Amino acid sequence: MKTWNWFTSPSTPIPKYIFSEMIKITFYAVCALLLTFLIYMSLAPMVEIRQTSRHIQMDSVPRKQLPSEVSALNRELTFKQALLELSQEDSIGLIVNLNDSTIGISIHGVVLHSTKTNSLHIDPWLTRLPDALYLDKFSRPVTISSHRSTIIKEPIVVREAPKDPLEAAVNAYQPDTLIQNPAFLQFDMETNVRLLIEQDMTTTWLDRKTRFAFFNALYMGNLKVNLKHFFTWRGPAYTPEIRMALPADDMRAIYRALPSKTSVVIYLNRAST
Amino acid sequence: MRYTLLQLSSGFKEILTSKKRRNIGLVAITALIMIVVPKVIQKASTALVLSTYETTPLDSLQLSETKASLTADIAKQDKKLNAKIPSAHYLVINTADNEFTLYKKNDIIRKDKCSTGSYILLKNGDQQEWLFKTPKGEFNIRGKTTSPVWKKPDWAFVEAGLPVPAINASSRYEYGVLGDYALNLGHGYLIHGTLYQRFLGLPVTHGCIRLNDENLELVYKSLNTNSKVYIF
């Protein structure tokens, strides 16, 4: 095999085989790094279970452990108790019943509006949760820690007062339906569960563009966080997701009704999933 | 055509027999490993952690007792939740869709269009501004009136480009514009009728809730003082 010396022959061009070797080495290095990252990411659900378990251990009130045979009843009871707790609050709360695929809003125990989802996807991480972990996440109303939306919360239209009745008559308000953007919602709960709601009809170009931008921002954000964690030797981040589709009008009605600090009750029964 | 096909097949043969074949296989295996290995690790690690949460099963007697106790508790909670729903008539207003629903307990008595706040922010220079928005939450009917008279607030004059008169000036009083009935929700917000029935179903009001004559009469007769009105 030919040898090529960097020091003795500086003017000679680099032989081809060195390039191909370098490409090979780079390829293997990238593959190894990618595989390590994918394995690291695959451990994220387990890390999240561990973190939830740690949270239960730190809980000052130990929960009564019931066997899996009564899991459905236990979860139903917990849901009802959470609803009662929600009814004590003075603002409008959100109820996500994954059992009958409905989402609604209520105040003081009165359901104001409820709508059925057209499509529902629950993260398998959530459906496989044992009762002990489930109760930690869903046994009480949880607050939304952050949210993102394409819906305008208050579609305010600014108008300057007319100077005289003539100007008022010329600029008379033409009533119209409010500005209606495509509807996509993301609610992140304080218990590290994410609720993604999208409109059931994505027909126009604007709808498709908004949907792409919305989900792209979400997944790029996730990737960024995990890459940062990966290169700083921290555990992977994992947020289980509940994804549903609703009619856009219902989404607007629900989103605009919710106060800045919203409480959410989520019900998921293993028997039904 | 035949020539092109021959060329293609010889090119394909070359790929299969050349050194490239080994490289293609290598890439395919790497890709497969990248897909399969993380999946297997994810499943195995999650299952391993979850296996620690298995509970010991109860004997049949204990099980039936636990089931009975849980069922009784659920029934108790249901009763408590049911008691939260007003037994008398109540009204629910949807400001996003401009719809109202009149309920008695869980039964819908009437569902129809209404008009709610326009979300217009009226600015009078830098000094004053008003936001025409219907408030949200739980309200009580504070009072009911027949043949209501509208005492026009300042914004009504500002919006019309007119000078604002004195607080009790006669020009502030308008008769017949609020319909035959009005129900007071407090803070100046009313449920009333309208002359502009064609705008029902649209967000056009200054914060009040407008109904058509027939619905207004039904709501007026169904709701009493202290009846609940829920606006969202």
How would you describe this protein?
The complex is a heterodimer of chains A (273) and B (232). Chain A has 273 residues and is of the alpha+beta class. Chain A is built from eight helices and ten strands. Chain A has helices at residues 16-42, 44-58, 71-87, 124-127, 131-138, 165-170, 205-231, 248-257; strands spanning 93-97, 102-107, 110-116, 119-122, 142-149, 157-160, 184-189, 194-199, 241-246, 263-267. In chain A, strands 3-2-1-10-5-7-8-9-4 form a nine-stranded mixed β-sheet. In chain A, α2 (44-58) crosses α5 and α3 (71-87) runs parallel beside α5. The longest helix of chain A has 27 residues, at 16-42. Chain A is flat, with a radius of gyration of 27 Å. Chain B has helices spanning 2-17, 20-50, 60-83, 154-159, 213-222, and strands at 89-94, 99-104, 107-113, 120-124, 128-132, 137-140, 143-146, 149-151, 173-175, 181-186, 189-192, 209-210, 228-231. The radius of gyration of chain B is 35 Å and the shape is flat. Chain B is built from five helices and 13 strands. β6 of chain A pairs parallel with β4 of chain B.
Task: Write a compact overview of the structure shown.
The complex is a heterodimer of chains A (273) and B (232). Chain A has eight helices and ten strands.
Number of strands of chain B: 13
> Radius of gyration of chain B over alpha carbons?
35 Å
Largest sheet of chain B: 5 strands, mixed
Total number of strands of chain A:
10
Strand content of chain B: 25-35%
Report the principal-axis shape of chain A: flat
Kindly report the oligomeric state of this protein. Answer: heterodimer
Mean pLDDT level of chain A = 88
